[in-house]
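so my prof wants the structure for this chain in the tokens format not the other one, which i didnt know existed until like an hour ago. anyway here's the sequence
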Amino acid sequence: MGTRESLAKKVAWISVISNILLTFGKLIVGYYEKSDAVFADGIHSAADVFASVIVLLVIKIANKPADKEHPYGHGKAEVIVSGIVGIVLLIVSFYVVYEGIVGLFHPISAPNILAMWISIVSYGLKEFLYRYSLKVAKVHSSKAIEAIAFDHKADIVASIAAAGGVILSIIGDKLNVHVLLYGDKIASIVVAILVFKIAIEMLKESFDILLERNIDTEIMLDYRSIISSFPDVKRIDKIRAREHGHYVLVDLRISIDHEKTIKEDMILREKSNKS
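here's what i got, hopefully its the right format
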């Protein structure tokens, strides 16, 4: 549990530090080099900083063992964090769309090539962070770290869109093709749409877990197979399972030999384990 918590904190801190650097870089370059797409991506990175800080605050809570008030543990704290990150991304997407549409009705000019380079650097860094975070999330079944990974994924597509928009605007300026100058503005709207899509996916998964949706059929079949492999289990009468953050809760009703009491069965099992 300690290793899991320390790894989660490590991933979150790496995310916080990288997002702070990218936030300042994108906002400054986007503002002074007149790139709406890069500036919008900077706002998104600022939201990432907020999301990562929330994850850091909740990791310790999520890893606390079950207690009298919380007999099923505190795992759903991670799910709540995932939902909060989704809501933050949703708000960011609406704001960026608004700014992008408003920008279409103002004088258009091509941004500097520096705006393109910071988007490319952002893409490379976020691609690495996404793969690293997702790997840790899968190994430790952490919804909080998975939320950070998907946040990085949103940054990847946002950086690609921003870089593409800047390049189109620069080409339009060099070739005197006025319509291409709108590439940067349109890219900021594309960024918002991509972020919106990821936010909806995160919110849907969070709500499914909070509403205790049954887990996948294939996993349930695996549980049935494992339980049925015990010789004392004569029949599985009822089985239900639901995700609870980084672990799964299983409600089970089985039938055993009618000539045995549950206590006798437990004693025999203990003797068998000792031998």
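also thought this was worth mentioning. The two ends are 30 Å apart (CA to CA).
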